[in-house]
């Protein structure tokens, strides 16, 4: 069982958090939208995805899945943080990374123990370095972390099935994890193998 924080409870974040919880992990999903979080706590889904409501409700009841607007609450016991915020197309056609930047800044300011930060949002090449830089520059004091890229490929309408049975998993990181004696590769791969 792993403690996981999911940042951004939209299509990808809600599916990711719900499916990880259903595998037995403890998940706290954080969103800046108070209304979205309050609704989710009442079992009101922000999206329609076949089966998602039932799986979410089962895991909320089992206390494996919770929702919060507080990064401090989400990151409290987390070992892994999945960034799942939106990256809408900007005016120039490039992905707008403002939500990624904001999430990275708040993670940096809030974290009080080593973390593996995994980006699931759709982003351009180089965003892992950007997230690393933002976290390094915004931490009040240096705490080890590693940024991993693991883009999501789920399709709306079959999100749960795609998450549980992916036809591919892309996973990479430029840096060692920075946690003593825990190489990032074996840690994440063990986790992924066990979870998927
Ligand atoms: N929807 C899909 O089918 C799909 C599939 C594959 C990949 N993706 C990618 O995954 C990412 C997320 O997509 P989505 O469809 O889930 O987006 P979404 O717009 O449905 O959800 C994003 C959520 O992030 C929240 N958020 C924004 N800034 C935040 C912050 N700083 N802290 C916490 N929460 C914040 C928003 O309130 C919203 O609830 C995008 O990059 C998208 O391109 C989406």
Which terms summarize this structure?
single chain, 196 residues, alpha/beta, 14% strand, globular
Task: Write a brief structural summary.
With 196 residues, the protein is of the alpha/beta class. 40% of the residues lie in helices and 14% in strands. Helix 5 runs parallel beside helix 6.
What does this structure look like?
A six-stranded parallel β-sheet has the order 3-2-1-4-5-6, sandwiched between helices. Helices cover 40% and strands 14% of the residues. It contains eight helices and six strands. By secondary structure, the chain is an alpha/beta fold. It has one domain (3-195): NAD(P)-binding Rossmann-like Domain (Rossmann fold). The radius of gyration is 16 Å and the shape is globular. Helix 1 (11-22) crosses helix 3. It has helices at 11-22, 34-41, 52-61, 71-75, 98-110, 127-138, 159-164, 184-195; strands at 3-7, 26-30, 65-68, 80-83, 115-119, 145-149. It binds nicotinamide-adenine-dinucleotide.
Q: What ligand molecules are bound, each kind once?
A: nicotinamide-adenine-dinucleotide
Rg, alpha carbons = 16 Å
SSE series: EHEHHEHEHEHEHH
Beta percentage is: 5-15%
Low-confidence blocks of residues: 178-196
Q: What about the largest sheet? A: 6 strands, parallel
DSSP, total strands: 6
CATH architecture label name? 3-Layer(aba) Sandwich
SSE arrangement:
Blueprint: E1 3-7, H1 11-22, E2 26-30, H2 34-41, H3 52-61, E3 65-68, H4 71-75, E4 80-83, H5 98-110, E5 115-119, H6 127-138, E6 145-149, H7 159-164, H8 184-195
Residues 7-13, 30-33, 36, 84-87, 99, 102-103, 121-122, 152-154, 156 line the site of nicotinamide-adenine-dinucleotide (NAD).
